[in-house]
Amino acid sequence: MKSVTRVPLRIAPRLVQRPALVRPIHSTVVKAANVAPVVGTGPPPEPPIQPAENVHQRVARRRKQAEMLKHAKELRNASSGKGGGGLRMRFWKDVSVKEVDGALQVFLDTRPLRHPVTKEIVQIPITKPDLASALALEWDLLTSAQDATRHHLIPLTSLTCRALDIAAADNVTGGEIPEVRNTIATTLLRYLDTDSILCWNPPAGAHDRRNDAGESLRDVQKRTAEEVVSFLTTHVWPGITISPVLDGHSIVPQSQAPGVREIVQGWIIGLDAFEIAGLERAVLAGKSLIAAARFVVEWTEGSVARGHLNPGKKFGVEEAAVATSLEVDWQTGQWGEVEDTHDVNKEDVRRQLGSVALLVSGTGLKA
């Protein structure tokens, strides 16, 4: 009997003829995707309302944090064997201001206040009693001699010493312009290309925020800049035209007209030591050379004083701080402040501008 041929299972599929066309069978209906409608095309939401701020609670909280940090630092120093030594307590009891050889000096008991680097006695012009009194108050508030080595605790002393260093450089070089003046002028002129007062917001749209007077941010910036610039081009730098560096939708700063930088540079170099030191501090505080120049000529007692030509309200610390912080104030008014950031910067700008007013002002102001 002939045996039946067996086909292995692994090659069986090859012997089966497959249909030429396979038609898939589906039980679901094909539907197009349902895209969600676009939202957020309307005006922006209302700004968050800040809760009522209790200043006393915030001050108490910060004092408690400072005490905790101080206590922790003392524990670390005690465990590591480090001590403050004689720098823990201040070596003076009373601080006074006396006139010596036609200048004002600050005395720590019987010791005159000295420059922290050159060790020269700090001599304040006799026409600046407010500056001398402020220096004495600054040192009277120090609790230890170690605090006197921290420059952030003696900012007015540092600013005064900066002015005295410039005056000393002027005496050394004689009639030539010292290098420190050229360096300051070069640095400050860079802020003219990105001046915070000359950078304007693009034109307002239909949904942009406006103030109670119906003005947009651009309107407020333009009005503020025109007031400051018109005073400078009339009484300080007559004959020049100062243009906005950012206007409309441009993102590239525009340069001033030929000759403007040279005139401003010559004016900066010609300031006296206290004025140029104050101008430098004001520019760095507000990021605006225009506002700083307006502020210095308003308060100085020197030859560039123009405050007596101002028929309106005095351009003081608050006015200068507001003029240089228009966009920040506008945004925080709409979206709220960040605690320990915007509020700290706001007070710091006013503190630095106040120190400039003390530095450049004096009894020699023109009536």
Automatic annotation (TrEMBL):
Cellular compartments annotated: Mitochondrion
Q: Which domain of life is it from?
A: Eukaryota
State the family it belongs to: Belongs to the ATP12 family.
TM helices/strands, residue ranges: none
Classification via PANTHER family? ATP SYNTHASE MITOCHONDRIAL F1 COMPLEX ASSEMBLY FACTOR 2, ATP SYNTHASE MITOCHONDRIAL F1 COMPLEX ASSEMBLY FACTOR 2/ATP12 PROTEIN, MITOCHONDRIAL PRECURSOR
**Keywords from the UniProt entry:** Chaperone, Mitochondrion, Transit peptide
Example GO biological process term? mitochondrial proton-transporting ATP synthase complex assembly
Which taxonomic lineage is given here? Eukaryota, Fungi, Dikarya, Ascomycota, Pezizomycotina
Q: What is its main location?
A: mitochondrion
| UniProt keyword Transferase, yes or no | no
This chain belongs to the protein called ATP synthase mitochondrial F1 complex assembly factor 2
GO annotation, cellular component aspect? mitochondrion
